[in-house]
Amino acid sequence: MPDKPGRVSVEERLFSLVLALIATEIGLTKAEILSTVQGYRQRYAVGGDNASLERQFERDKDDIRELGIPLETVEPPDDPGSNHHLRYRIPKGLYELPADVSFSADELMLLKLAATVWREGSLSGESRRALTKLNSLGVDSTDPVLGYSPTLRVRDASFEPLSKAMDRGQIVAFQYLKPGEGTPRRRRVAPQAVVLHEGRWHLFGTDEDVQATRTFLLSRIVGPVVSVPGATFVPGGAGKGQEALAELDALWRANLAEIAVEPGSDAAVRLSKRQAVEQGRAPGESTVALHYTDLDILADELAGYGPEVLVRSPPALRAAVLARLVRVRDAHADPQAPAGAAPSDRAEEGTR
């Protein structure tokens, strides 16, 4: 059964091309590459139209050169200037590591691990190129690294389509679910920057429906990000990212929560690392002041500590934590219990 088109990954196709061009002394013509190399041959049409495949090969040549691999073009001596009979090769001597440089098996594994850590989002292209070059040094991309491969994930599926739309000046649409709302609402946005602040990704852009700048939390984007047909904008440049971060920093400084924590508890250890101020309270209790950018995110975190934390201010945060604790209590309540019973002391502890 013939191979199905599209099954070969970018990494495998580039690696196969590098191996093929290193293995030949005289080089390969474009036709020989497209008809024999893994990743091309599956889509090659003998005597047919291979224009799209040739364009793919041209892009792959650029990727290989970006790796620092010396891809040479050799003209036939009997037909100089003929593109049809050009040959491509990678001189093995130029591509090999210097004689005084070598890697142990463990070092190669660590190099591969460093590349696989950044497999997603804005660094996915660099990751692919790094893995291709490491593979050529003898590291099999399917080999396990200490039995696992930790990944630093972009965490939000909307990251890459937003980044691409921003680069191309395309207005996008997506469903956005704000805290406290039961259903998401469609937003049309001209994305100006995607920034990381306090460990979370944010989209900074112009809300086309209100013609005003807004910041969106990527984790609250529901469903796919799609481009709006025919709708474009002029990107604002690198300064938009700094503008977004400056606004988020100002919001973070303006919001301050006062949290009493139980000494020695998990909450005390974790929250004290982020404290703005710490001062003694009653015996056996200490207070931590925390800056924050999003009240609902902080409320989610504090509710998870249960009785280890007591929210003193602001009142809106205290109410948000209490609401979460009550929902947890109600979800585990005895169905025979009277409806509308008052919250238990344990549920109220997080907001005393």
TrEMBL record:
Residues 261-326 form the WCX domain. Residues 159-222 form the WYL domain. Residues 334-344 have a biased composition (Low complexity). Residues 332-352 are annotated as: Disordered. Signal peptide: none annotated. This is WYL domain-containing protein. It comes from Cryobacterium fucosi. The lineage of its organism: Bacteria, Bacillati, Actinomycetota, Actinomycetes, Micrococcales.
